[in-house]
Design goal:
The complex is a heterodimer of chains A (309) and B (533). Chain A is an alpha+beta fold and 309 residues long. Helix content of chain A is 33%, strand content 14%. Chain A is built from six helices and twelve strands. In chain A, the strands form three sheets. In chain A, strands 2-3-4-5-10 form a five-stranded antiparallel β-sheet, with no helix packed on it. In chain A, strand 7 and strand 8 form a beta hairpin. The relative contact order of chain A is 0.09. The N terminus of chain A is likely disordered. In chain B, strand 7 and strand 8 form a beta hairpin. The radius of gyration of chain B is 28 Å and the shape is globular. The longest helix of chain B has 33 residues. By secondary structure, chain B is mainly alpha-helical. Among the domains of chain B are: 316 residues, Up-down Bundle (Cytochrome Bc1 Complex, Chain C), CATH 1.20.810; 45 residues, no CATH class. Classes of the chains: A alpha+beta (309), B mainly alpha (533). At the A-B interface, helix 4 and strand 1 of A face helix 1, helix 2, helix 5, helix 8 and helix 10 of B.
């Protein structure tokens, strides 16, 4: 691969273009070389000591900061020794050699072509068989793709629905049902449908906006109870929980990408990358003043997807 | 930029032709000398000894069976050019080695399971908290396994440095034109390695199942959902159903510790083999030419220096792993779908995507009962274009410059004003995106409004890349017109070190460049070729 290079020690003859590199090498000056040797020995001595202490620290129970520091010292010192060694003690340095032309000769290329065609021709001549082989291979490949389906269920319309049902009680993450008077004005609470507190898509944020004037959308009359409104907590942008409520401006903020929703205006996005309002959950008062949902969300919650209408 | 390179190549020809005459001659003159005793010279540092050393004996034992002496000799004598910027790729390689070693240790203690357990470990603040077995095992690695936290933090830091080294290495290759013929294949392999490294970084980052990485997974799932036609199907296949499911950690684990690392190992081997086979590029300079390679031998100089580089890389990562806290999952807590904290930033190499998601205007396509959601554009389209352009760059440049020549000598960035300017504006674009990924942190640190910051970043994204492109191009044009860097401009000659160790003054006729500077004619040619445009 490499062109023949002269033996070591002859580097002044070998690389006439760059003689100075060797002229300053410490190896030619015994005292300086001895000094370099001593330095390397000290460096590698430090490595030895640090490594032994490191083992001791481990045996004594370990301490992350000390372990990292000792390992840093041990490895760094080892490296320093190598650098001094390479710089001051190694013979010869700069070499020049020709590069190869990587392209093969035309004759070699023709020979390779011929060898390939030797095997290709019997197939090419039987074009019908070649097509049959293609068909067989395709069918086999297709059949081999099907097990991929086992990796996950078909989405179907599962993305369009949550666990909320008619009459689902609003409960907190620890299954406590929520009553009408539980939430003071400007308070927020994350709620789930009873029995589905682990369904991330059903997470809903319940807000008491008090007597602030709301722009109620057509068809959503009677969805709020006594200043309480409920919206999906799954951001319509990338699905993070919209958890920050600014009570002064009645805005919900998503901490991931700062999409901001106006709670008094149907949680319409007013800032950030979200392009759709948060879906609203229709509330009603059930038995014993417990809050319930009138029905599931009337549109898919969370980020968009291709089949979302 | 249309036809600068052919002009420069032909202009560089005379200079290049003059050099090898001096450089190759002595080597071939000595050929018989080295051919006399190739075997012994190859195995050992001291040639011409009848007595074979122990290493030589071992070598003979292997050679009797495999016949590798010829390869060993050429390998040991292989020449590598010296320049600090050629070590960036090596740093990445050594990071990968450290990642494999520390990662192997971690696998012995990590449990890739989303089964719910109650924490009763050494870290009291989380005592009694329900969490996944995965999070629990990472807590144990951090607090109970001896040297576990150091290993874990070194692993995470090594991943960050790995990606950083790859990106800086890519920039070096780009700005010096090292991707040009005959190295287009290795460019493609290198960009593939960047993709694989990012994939492995992200899957590894997600494994502890903490609140921060869980939020990242949720966003990744939403991005997959946003792909037209197949998004929701793909998302369900990948995450085993609706997110958060119970299969994610297990799948990401096997992807992280087996599939992607194996792919990286294979592709990395190809990358290095091709570098080895094609030989390294080099900057123009004294003793350098297109037809020769100039530098130090693999054995011992280059091997020892490279070993030192490994030691330093490992040393820095050990220091960071021990002293600089990273990913303190006990502060974030376990993932809960309904919880999230502000200041949720991903690892740095995903930062540009996070920023793109944040500054994207609220736009999505809803027509004919179908939706192309907002995250598709910054989360799928942008990376698609980014990597598409990266893969295609060598061929795009070839198409526009009509440069089909083989290049072993590198460009100086300023000799290719347009390429460098485009590179600078591209970096500007992604740095702004990266900064935009931290709008909430910047806003709270500097007391600014997030709205104002987002608008500022949106404006900067539109204005700064073209502006920096133009400025870079102008500055480089000016530099090549001056034929020298202003601070190198000699005043009445220039000091040059001589072969014997003394110094002598050179006349001002070279106008700032050394007598051997091959790049000079190239720069001048580019300047003239570009003048009309």
């Amino acid at each position: 691969m490499t062109a023949p290079t002269p033996p070591h020690g002859d580097s002044s003859r070998a690389a006439p273009v760059d003689p100075p590199a060797d002229a300053f090498r410490l190896q030619d000056r015994p005292a300086a070389a001895r000094f370099a040797e001593r330095r390397i020995a000290i460096y590698w001595g430090i490595t030895t000591v640090a490594a032994l202490i490191l083992a001791g620290v481990y045996l004594a129970g370990g301490q992350p900061q000390v372990e990292g520091l000792l390992l840093m010292i041990a490895l760094g010192s080892l490296g320093l020794g190598f650098v001094v060694f390479a710089r001051d003690l190694l013979p010869g340095s700069e070499q020049t050699a020709p590069r190869d032309e990587h392209r093969s000769t035309e004759a070699q290329r023709d020979a390779a072509d011929e060898s390939f065609e030797r095997g290709e021709q019997p197939f090419v001549r039987r074009s019908f068989l070649l097509r049959m082989l293609g068909l067989a291979g395709g069918a086999l490949g297709l059949a081999a793709l099907f097990p991929i389906n086992s990796l996950g269920p078909h989405p179907g319309d599962t993305l369009a629905h949550t666990s909320w049902r008619k009459g689902s009680r609003l409960v907190t993450a620890d299954n406590t049902p929520v009553k009408v008077g539980d939430l003071e004005v400007n308070g927020v609470l994350t709620v789930f449908p009873e029995g589905a507190t682990s369904d991330a898509d059903s997470q809903t944020i319940l807000i008491n906006v008090g007597d602030a004037a709301q722009k109620v959308r057509p068809g959503r009359e009677g969805w709020s109870v006594d200043g309480l409104v409920a919206y999906s907590k799954v951001c319509t942008h990338a699905g993070c929980p919209v958890g920050l409520y600014r009570s002064t401006s009645h805005q919900l903020l998503c901490p991931c990408h700062q999409s901001t929703f106006d709670v008094l205006d149907g949680c319409k996005p007013v800032f950030g990358p979200a392009a759709r309002s948060l879906p609203q959950l229709a509330l009603m008062v059930g038995q014993d003043d417990y809050l319930e949902a009138q029905h599931d969300y009337s549109e898919p919650v969370g980020p968009g997807y291709w089949n979302r209408p | 930029m249309s036809d600068d390179t052919p002009a420069s190549a032909s202009a560089a020809e005379p200079a290049a032709a003059a050099e090898p005459a001096a450089a190759v001659e002595p080597a071939s003159a000595l050929e018989p000398a080295s051919a006399v005793e190739p075997a012994s010279a190859s195995e050992e540092k001291k040639p011409a000894r009848k007595k074979v050393t122990r290493a030589g004996q071992a070598g003979r034992w292997v050679d009797d069976r495999l016949g590798v002496s010829k390869f060993t000799q050429s390998a040991l004598d292989k020449i590598f050019p010296d320049h600090w910027s050629f070590m960036l790729g090596e740093v990445a390689l050594y990071c990968f080695v450290i990642l494999v070693i520390t990662g192997a240790y971690l696998t012995f203690f990590f449990s890739p399971s989303e089964a719910q357990v109650i924490y009763h470990g050494a870290y009291k603040p989380l005592d009694g908290l329900p969490m996944s077995a995965a999070f629990n095992s990472v807590m144990n690695i951090s607090f109970q396994v001896r040297a576990g936290l150091v290993m874990r933090q070194m692993h995470h830091w090594a991943a960050l440095v790995f990606l950083a080294a790859i990106v800086v290495h890519l920039c070096r290759i780009f700005f010096t034109g090292a991707f040009r013929r005959p190295r287009e294949i290795n460019w493609i392999i290198g960009v593939t390695l960047l993709l694989l490294a990012m994939a492995n970084g992200f899957t590894g980052y997600s494994l502890p199942d903490d609140l921060l990485s869980g939020t990242g997974l949720r966003i990744a799932y939403s991005i997959v959902l946003s792909i037209p036609f197949i998004g929701s199907w793909l998302g369900f296949l990948f995450f085993g159903g609706k997110f958060p499911g119970t299969d994610t950690i297990q799948r990401f684990f096997i992807i992280h510790v087996l599939f992607v690392p194996a792919l990286i190992a294979i592709v990395l081997t190809a990358h290095l083999s091709i570098v080895w086979h094609q030989k390294h590029t080099d900057f123009p300079g004294p003793g350098k030419s297109e037809d020769t390679i100039h530098g130090s031998r693999l054995w011992p100089q280059y091997a020892i220096k490279s070993t030192a580089l490994f030691c330093f890389t490992a040393s820095v990562i050990a220091g960071l792993g021990g002293l600089a806290q990273i990913n303190p999952i006990w502060i974030y807590g376990p993932y809960q779908p309904a919880a999230v904290s502000s200041g949720s930033q991903p690892d740095w190499y995903i930062g540009w995507l996070e920023g793109a998601l944040r500054v994207m205007p609220p736009f999505e396509i809803r027509e004919f009962h179908h939706t192309i959601p907002n995250p598709f554009f910054p989360g799928v389209l942008l990376p698609g274009i980014t990597f598409g352009l990266l893969f295609a760059w060598p061929f795009l440049e070839q198409h526009f410059t009509k440069d089909q020549d083989r290049h072993n000598l590198l460009d100086r960035p300023r000799d290719r004003p347009l390429r460098t300017a485009l590179g600078v504006s591209t970096i500007t674009f992604y740095v702004i995106l990266f900064l935009a990924g931290g709008t909430d942190v910047l806003a709270s640190s500097f007391g600014l409004s997030i709205q104002a910051l987002v608008h500022l970043f949106q404006t900067m994204l539109l204005l700064l890349p073209p502006l920096f492109c133009f400025l870079t191009w102008r500055i480089l044009k000016e530099l090549s017109r001056q034929k020298a860097h202003p601070i190198q401009q000699p005043v009445g000659g220039r000091l040059v070190r001589t072969a014997t160790g003394g110094y002598e003054t050179e006349g001002g006729e070279h106008n700032g460049h050394g007598p051997h500077d091959n790049a000079e004619p190239a720069g001048a040619a580019v300047d003239e070729a570009l003048e009309p445009t």
